[in-house]
Each structure stands twice: as C-alpha cells, then as structure tokens.
Design goal:
about 600 residues, alpha+beta, 6-stranded mixed β-sheet, 23 helices, 12 strands
Length: about 600
C-alpha cells in the first residue's frame, strides 16, 4: 500500500491547486481548507485512544484510500473530487502514523522506502506521469494491487501502542519533529520525480534522471551506516552539494551535487523515523512535523506565485527564493544530528530482495524502453517539405475539468500535423503541479527534437519548442519582469531542409503588469530588427497578452515582425508573426475542453531568393 499512498500523496496537492491556478489567486477557492485538513489531520492523535481506533480499522482506511483514488474518473465537480481525494489522503496519512504509534517502525520505514522507489521507477517509465492518471485501466490495476496488499495487512497481528506514560525532553521532541518535517518535505519535493535537479540546470530528464534513481538506491544502502547518517560531515557535504548544483558553471558536473542531495535525504529516512518513535511522544512531534512540512510547500508557492498570494503575507519578499527554501530545509534536517549514534545495522534481507526485484522488473525495463526512444527524431513520418507551425498555451497540462491532458495534447499535435510546435505554460516541476514534465513525455511519444527553458529555477511560465527539424542552437532567457512573474523566451535556430530558420516562442506577463509587457515586447522587437538586418528568416509563435494593433502589438510590427492574420481582431493572447517567410492556411482550432485557449496553426514556406 505504500506505493499507492505515494501516488496519492503526489496527486493530492495538484488536485486542490487547479482553480486557484485558473483564477490566479490562492485565496478565492478556499483550497486552504483542504490543505490544512489533510496535512493537519495528524492533530487528531491528540485525542485519547484515537490512534488505537485508526489502527484497528486500518484495513478499512486503506480500502477507503483506494475508493477515493477511483473517484478521479467519476463525473463529479472539481470541488467534490477534491474533497473526496482529501478524505482518501487523510485516511492514508492517519493509517501510516497510527502504525508508528503501535511500534511498527521498521515495517513502516522499509515499506515506505520501497514504495517510493517503485513509484519513482514507474514514473520514470511513464515520463513523469503517475500510474492512476494514465487511464481507468491503470487505476483498476492499482486498485487490485492495493486490495491484495490490504489482505496481507488484515492478517497482521494487533500490536499494542507505544507506552504513553514515557516522558521525553521537550527540546528533543521539537528538534526531532522539525527535522522529520523538513525531511518529509524534501522527500516529496526532490525524491518523487527523477528530474527535479536536471531541469534546474537545463539538463534533459533522460539520461540524467537515471542518476537520480541510482542516487536513491545508494541512499537506501547508506541507511544502515548510522555513523554516516548522524555525522555533521555528511550534513555539511549535502549543504555544499546543494550550493554546488546551483552555482557550479559546468552543468554536467554540477548535477552530481543534486545526486548527493538525493542520497543524503534518502539515507536519513531510517534514522529520522527511528528517532521520532524512540525519543518523542508522537502526538507532539508528528503535528510539529506536519506544520514544518506545510511551511515548506507554502515557501515554494510563495516563491513562484508571489504576485497572487494574499496581500501582506510576504509575496514580494519570497519572490524567486526556491533555492533558499532548499538550503533552509536541508539545514533543518540536521537538527537531530547532535544526538547519540547507534551501531551500524544491516538492511533487512527482504528489503534488499524487494529492491532487487524492483530494479530487475521495473527500473531496468524502464531504462531500456526510454533508451529505445532516446534521440529518435523521425516524427513518426510527419510531413517535412515545409514548416507547419503551431502555438498553444496548454494551461500547465490541465484540461478544463482539472485532469491532466498529456495524451490529449499529443493527439492534438498529431491531428493538426504540426512539425514545429510552440507550447507555453509548460513548467510543471513543482510539488503543487505534481512534479511532472509534459515536454519529456511528448518528446518520447512524438519523436521530436525539444527545447525547454529557461531553467526551472527561473520560475517562469515555461516555454518549449518541439520540432521534427534539428535544433541547431537556442537562446533560453527569462525576460525583464520587474513587477510580475518572470516571462520566458526561447530563440531557437532550426535546420529546415538545409535552410536556417529562427523560431521564437515566448509567454509575456499578465495584463495588469504594463511595464513588464512593454519591456518583454521590446526584447522580441529588437530580435526581429536584428534578423531583418542579417537577412534571416524567422517565425514568432507566442503569448503576447494584448489586443491587435495595440501599443505593444505595434512595437512588434515596427520591429519587422509581420502578423500573418492582421485582419483578425478576435485575439488577445496567442499570435503568430513571421520575417522572410511565406505564410499560408492560417487556422484557429477549438481545443474544446483540453485547455482554456485555442490552437493556432499555419503553414510556412521559404521564399525563393
């Protein structure tokens, strides 16, 4: 059931994030209610005998988790689905911690680690998707898997709760609670997805995501070395590695800093849970941990959505401080280091056997499958005698019913027949977006060249180019954004049948950020002027955020960009401009419920010299 729990754990947060994202506000939907109910339900353990009740009914609780997962495919409203998923998550987290209350620490430690490793391996195979989101068939497989696990759980003997009369130092309870809360947040953020760190520094999820899985395995083996896990040296190495990945200039070397951080976080799972159960009253330490865990998530939200959080809550101060969040929580993870060190212990044989089976039957086949698709750019036979360019804002991979639309986006691209695709709103590499990567998925499925950027540390909307034509070079930048969230731009040069064509994809700021949008428009206009002067050919496929023939629109046209459909007044966001190309057959295609914007597509031919 740990595998099922981790799947739900990842998807619960995105399920409550959709409408605040859609409304550009984190206070209108009341998602704070679901958030606090789910993550603070552990405060119920303060009620006498509550843990005993949960433990005795743990099989029913786990079955309820499975039932709530299946509601994802029912035709309920977004709010009702969110409430049901919240109920399932509460049941899962209560059962997990009730097991700790009843002394099943070792079982909880190793089942959680193996369940998480299995989930990461499966997500690697599925290009970051979580199994029960793929289809109803996958969801039913997951349910059967969970029911079988519940049968084994039902056969377990009842364990008496830990002696509640024991007393502990309040200082140690606070320290261990904070340390465990920080680690639990880092597990969710960094260890549930194979490519958080590669995308941070503009490396591709494959093959660099393999290193994350290897680092995870190393971390599991390091759990037996208590002399390492409780060492200040190990903690300092992790802190230095976090700085190394961000600041070392050679990204292919810097990524090893991320691998060390992953190994560090995983290696502390055993010691942190053991300390929690042996040196604290769980009814005190676990609620403290849940508060710290929640603060970590809020830190990431405030760092990205600083413009849309409630006024007076520190939004501007937290702008683009995601690296500081990492450093702070790594530092907090060291609060329990100064306590006693135990003798090294062996990883249980059944755990090693389970790890071996996962690597043999899941991880290895996943790597082989991903390798078969790696650097295969045939586009499945899509037409290449001219450019068929497409622009689409995919709304962070959500459809209008708050479900992920990865496969539907793939089908739309194939149905349109686009061979050069501009996608904006593509940065999903955060816990509240499910830590996933639609560009990685589309590259594998479509066999297109891809360019994603700028790096996710820049906290932009996310821009991407998919092309059946080779990408010769690209410039990925965060555009000037003094007032609002960072805007993104990619200026890529494609080799189109021997002719270089520059393609720009960009997502400008919001309507209210007038200064930002003007600065961003001027950047594209200057790029256009340079291309005209150099006699280059170019296509601009982006999100302009303005009306036709408005001030910023005119800045673009004065820079040499030609609107391919200048008589169309029914536009606000998506535009297509060109320089030195012959556009034909402009179309607007209704995306129905796949996104909140239409698809725009046109053919481009190279003019005879």
């Amino acid at each position: 059931m740990s595998f099922v729990f981790w799947c739900l754990h990842i998807e619960y947060f995105p399920s409550i994030w959709y409408i605040p994202l859609n409304n550009l506000s984190v206070s209108d939907y009341g998602e704070e209610f679901y958030y606090f109910i789910a993550y603070f339900c552990v405060f119920l353990f303060l009620i006498p005998k509550f843990s005993d009740v949960v433990y005795k009914t743990r099989v029913f609780g786990q079955l309820l988790v499975l039932a709530m997962i299946c509601t994802h495919y029912l035709d309920f409203s977004i709010m009702i689905r969110g409430c049901l998923l919240c109920l399932g998550y509460c049941c899962g987290i209560l059962v997990k911690f009730a097991s700790l209350y009843h002394g099943n620490t070792n079982d909880e430690i190793w089942s959680s680690l193996l369940g998480l490793f299995l989930m990461v391996s499966v997500r690697f195979y599925l290009c970051s998707l979580t199994p029960f989101l793929i289809s109803l068939k996958w969801c039913l497989y997951l349910t059967v898997f969970g029911v079988i696990s519940c049968l084994f759980l039902y056969k377990e003997e009842y364990s008496k709760p830990i002696d509640p009369s024991k007393t502990f130092s309040l200082k140690s309870e606070i320290s261990y609670g904070i340390a465990y809360g920080a680690l639990y947040f880092l597990y969710h953020w960094l260890c549930t997805y194979h490519s958080v760190f590669p995308r941070w520094i503009e490396l591709h999820p494959f093959p660099y995501g393999i290193g994350m899985i290897v680092a995870f395995s190393v971390g599991i083996f390091l759990t037996k070395y208590d002399s390492i896990n409780r060492s200040w040296i190990w903690w300092l190495i992790a802190m230095f590695s976090a700085l190394f990945i961000v600041y070392y200039p050679v990204k292919e070397i810097a990524i090893f800093g991320g691998y060390i951080v992953i190994a560090y976080v995983v290696s502390l799972w055993d010691s942190s849970l053991t300390d929690l159960t042996e040196n604290t009253r769980l009814k005190v330490s676990i609620p403290i941990a849940s508060v710290v865990y929640t603060i970590g998530h809020l830190g990431i939200i405030w760092s990205v959505a600083f413009k849309f959080v409630p006024e007076g809550t520190g939004g501007p101060f937290m702008r683009e401080r995601v690296t500081q969040v990492l450093y702070i929580f790594l530092a907090l993870s060291g609060l329990s280091i100064s306590y006693k060190t135990r003798e090294n212990k062996m990883v249980p044989k059944k755990v090693l056997f389970g790890l071996f089976l996962i690597i043999l039957f899941v991880t290895t086949p996943a790597v082989i499958d991903r390798s078969d698709h790696y650097q295969v750019y045939d586009g499945h036979g899509v037409q290449t005698d001219h450019i068929r360019g497409m622009i689409w804002a995919i709304h962070f991979g959500y459809d209008n019913h708050a479900r992920y639309n990865f496969y539907e986006v793939k089908e739309m691209i194939q149905n349109v027949g686009a061979n050069v695709v501009s996608l904006v709103e593509t940065d999903l590499s955060r816990p509240f977006n499910g830590n996933r990567d639609i560009i990685e998925f589309l590259e594998k499925e479509l066999h297109y060249y891809t360019d994603f950027g700028p790096k996710t540390l820049n906290e932009t909307w996310g821009c991407a180019i998919l092309s059946v034509f080779p990408i010769v070079k690209s410039d990925r930048i965060a555009l000037p954004s003094p007032d609002g969230e960072n805007a993104c731009l990619i200026d890529a040069t494609l080799d189109v049948n021997g002719v270089e064509v520059d393609v720009i994809v960009s997502h400008f700021g919001n309507k209210e950020d007038t200064r930002d949008r003007e600065l961003q428009t001027r950047d594209s206009a200057l790029r256009g002027m340079r291309k005209v002067e150099e006699g280059r050919k170019g296509i601009w496929l982006g999100y302009l955020t303005t009306k036709p023939h408005s001030f910023n629109y005119n800045i673009m046209t004065k820079g040499g960009w030609v609107d391919i459909n200048e008589t169309d007044q029914d536009r606000w966001c998506e535009y297509i401009f060109t320089i030195g190309m012959e556009p034909r057959n402009f179309e607007k295609i209704d995306s129905k419920n796949l996104s909140d914007t239409e698809v725009q597509v046109a053919n481009f031919y190279i003019k005879d010299e």
